[in-house]
Amino acid sequence: MRIGIYPGSFDPVTLGHLDIIIRSSRLVDKLVIGVLINSSKNPLFTVQERVNMLKEVTKSMPNVEVEAFEGLLVDFADLKKADIIVRGLRAVTDFEYELQIAQINHKVNPRIDTVFLTTSVEFAYLSSSVVREIAMYNGRIDELVPKEIVDKVYQKYKDIKKSDSI
């Protein structure tokens, strides 16, 4: 059984992420979406909220699982018995960073390879940080994130504004 890991913060999941999930799920028997718990970042959504959003948008994909993890990606991949790590590339600048990470991951665990998928052209500009910026100012994000989470993103900012005014 070929198992792949698609890691990320997914804060929030975008249509670009979903594009990579759909395409990579066709390449493996099982795809584990690894939601990174990163103590050095201050995410908009909690880890559990991100996991739940990803489960919601992938519920029709029987070979996709979603799980939070912390620590080294190669250790998580080894734990899940993954053969490959899937990474999406939007631009050449992504490649430089991702190549370095892929090489060190392979050095740490030579059994695991990294597969790069280029983002579909319509999502090449898209990132979670762009979505957060637009949503913070109540801009339209319905063409940037899966429809199931549009209201969740707006509600998160409403909740933040409400708690800031208390």
TrEMBL record:
Enzyme class: transferase
Catalytic reaction list: (R)-4'-phosphopantetheine + ATP + H(+) = 3'-dephospho-CoA + diphosphate
Primary location recorded for the protein, binned into one broad class: cytoplasm
GO molecular function list: ATP binding; pantetheine-phosphate adenylyltransferase activity
Keywords in alphabetical order: ATP-binding, Coenzyme A biosynthesis, Cytoplasm, Magnesium, Nucleotide-binding, Nucleotidyltransferase, Transferase
Pfam families per the UniProt record, alphabetical: CTP_transf_like (PF01467)
Cofactor(s) the protein needs: Mg(2+)
Biological or metabolic pathway of the protein: Cofactor biosynthesis; coenzyme A biosynthesis; CoA from (R)-pantothenate: step 4/5
Subcellular location: Cytoplasm
Residues noted as binding substrate in the record, renumbered to the chain: S9, K41, L73, R87
GO BP of this protein: coenzyme A biosynthetic process
A GO cellular component annotation in the UniProt record: cytoplasm
Gene3D superfamilies attached to this UniProt entry: HUPs
Site (Transition state stabilizer) location in chain: H17
EC number: 2.7.7.3
List of residues binding ATP: S9, F10, H17, G88, L89, R90, E98, F123, A124, Y125, L126, S127, S128, S129
The family this protein is said to belong to: Belongs to the bacterial CoaD family.
Subunit relationships: Homohexamer.
NCBIfam families: coaD_prev_kdtB, cyt_tran_rel
Function: Reversibly transfers an adenylyl group from ATP to 4'-phosphopantetheine, yielding dephospho-CoA (dPCoA) and pyrophosphate.
Protein name: Phosphopantetheine adenylyltransferase
Organism for this UniProt entry: Mobilisporobacter senegalensis
Lineage of the organism: Bacteria, Bacillati, Bacillota, Clostridia, Lachnospirales
